[in-house]
Amino acid sequence: MQFEDLGLDKRLLKTMELWGFSTPTDVQASAIPVVCAGKDLLASSKTGSGKTLAFLLPALQRVMRSKAFSRSGPRVVVLAPTRELAKQVYGELRKLLAGTQYKCMLILGGENFNDQAKEFRKDPAFIVATPGRLADHLEHRHLTLEGLELLILDEADRMLDLGFAPQLEAMNNAANHRRRQTLMFSATLDHQQVNEIAADMLKEPKRVAIGFVN
Ligand code: ADP
Ligand code: MG
């Protein structure tokens, strides 16, 4: 399996070549075509298996290829359980977006709330955030999720273990667009709360489990 076989845009294939990534990892090979087809996804695979690009590549493809639903608010939101993990995803996204017209923003707990509120005025297409802080901004109406096209929950099991279920629900309700696509990544699919949240937030998801008996 090659990146060329996954239905990705030429510009993204070029980027992978520049990064020296010749073949997709298993989770990328399984997840990318599902996401490009517009389907919801519930995926698990172990740490270090390349999940970040499994969602960032098709997310960027979707944004490049389609017109925005709405003129304001992010088109893609990625939620991660901790500041550290959110920063890692953001770093990878920044590299992918270099040379494109799209802006991204990192929203973390523990940083100045009002400064962050002002940054939303730049209207970034992509937001990477920890759930607590983004939920606070939503509550203060600093942003709208009405135009959200893609909601991505990275390490969903850890977010739930950290008690973020109410914030995930709030995000789900604020971004209740019928064309919204939702992706959930988890270390395990054998997690009761993950399956509950998935039942609530995903529409007929395709399940992908790499390296586990499922
Ligand atoms: P996970 O989220 O599954 O723990 P990451 O997305 O953080 O894994 O990826 C782990 C490492 O693998 C990163 O350094 C990333 O740049 C690298 N990587 C991702 N995809 C590929 C690929 N197709 N070929 C080679 N390395 C890759
Ligand atoms: Mg990861």
From TrEMBL:
Organism from which the protein derives? Grimontia celer
Please report the name of this protein according to its UniProt entry: Putative DEAD-box ATP-dependent RNA helicase
Q: Where is the DEAD-box RNA helicase Q domain?
A: 1-29
Annotated ranges, domain Helicase ATP-binding = 32-207
| Family from the record | Belongs to the DEAD box helicase family.
Q: Tell me which domain of life the UniProt entry assigns to the organism this sequence originates from.
A: Bacteria
Record motif Q motif, residues:
1-29
